[in-house]
Amino acid sequence: MAVFLIKDDYFNPTDTLTCGQIFRYFETDRGFLVFSQDKSAQIYYANDCWTVETDDIDYFKNFFDVDTDYSVFANALSNTSDLMQKAVQKGKGIRILKQDLFETIISFIISANNNIKRIQLIINRMCERIGKPIKDGYAFPTIQDLANQDVSFFEEIGAGYRADYLYETCKQLYNDFDIDALKNMDTQTARQALCKLKGVGPKVADCILLFALGRGDVFPVDTWIKKIYHDAFETGLPDDKIHAFFVDKFKDLSGLAQQYLFYFYRTMDK
DNA sequence: TCCCAGGCAAGGC
DNA sequence: GCCTTGCATGGG
After folding, report:
1. Structure confidence at residue A234 (pLDDT)
2. For residue A52, what are the β-bridge partners?
């Protein structure tokens, strides 16, 4: 067991973990417990900095994107509007995580037309049922683990009508889909390839591109973003037009901008 | 009881 | 191509 420290005004585990990009984390008495793939990490505040305790230092340094300076991004976005300035102020500790590709695909298929609490519930049940036991919990199942399950498994963990999507996609990913090839495609090509998977549409594809493939030039349009856009501008615009509007505005910082806005609105008035 | 949640697939036009 | 509809489940 080893530790590394993060002392940076633009890192905060609460912002980073609760902003909706990851579902496998738990609050502990001193901070957070986070899972990714078959690895875990404890995060807590001590001696004026955040401490990450884990068996795989390199993995979680990359996972939390510690070598990137987010102050530049945050300041650039703050200057675009009063609203964005408030959103950045609220979520300035957000880092865009570098998550596992397969885990992200499965997690965001589950996320469709669902709420975050129940997404976490379903994913946790999946890991507890067939994930390998690891330190402090369970690993995310491998492609092979999930491809071997019947539809009834996905129904039993509460996936609802997404059970069939998960069943089909896991088989496809295991048999005839090269997910690593996505890493070398340009964003548009990768998005088209992802949308061929059952249960993956434009919004889920954008989340995968952003949270697992490190693409900043996407802007996931979900129910919250539609509310924001409709409040600020006009109603009735199709999702792809809303997407184009924001990507044209924020370019390579679109994904981060979307996270600031999403987090700001979702945590308002509570 | 009804409404909503990080949407998508399928079918009609 | 664009628009509408149905959809499992759990929490408010």
Report:
1. 84
2. A4, A43
A223 touches strand C (CB under 7 A): no
Q: pLDDT by residue (tens digit) across A174-204? A: 999 999 999 999 999 999 999 999 999 999 9
- How many Å apart are CA A149 and CA A42, to the nearest integer? 31
User: CA–CA separation, A11 vs A17, rounded Å?
Assistant: 11
Q: Nearest-CA residue to the C1' of C6?
A: A161
Active site residue A226: no
Residue A160 beta carbon within 7 A of nucleic strand C: yes
**According to the 3-state scheme, what is the secondary structure of A6-39?**
ECCCCCCHHHHHHCCCCCCEEECCCEEEEEECCE
Tokens found for residue A245: 């509007």
Bridge-partner residues for A53, per DSSP? A3, A42
Of the pLDDT bands very low, low, confident and very high (cuts 50, 70, 90), residue A59 is very high
Q: CA angle A261-A267-A270, nearest 5°? A: 150
Residue A80 is classified by DSSP as T
Number of neighbouring beta carbons within 10 Å of residue A137 = 16
- A203, A226, A241, A249: the active-site residue: A203
Q: What is the pTM of this model?
A: 0.98
| pLDDT at residue A269, rounded to an integer | 64
Supply the pLDDT for residue A270.
43
| Tokens 């059970």, residue located | A163
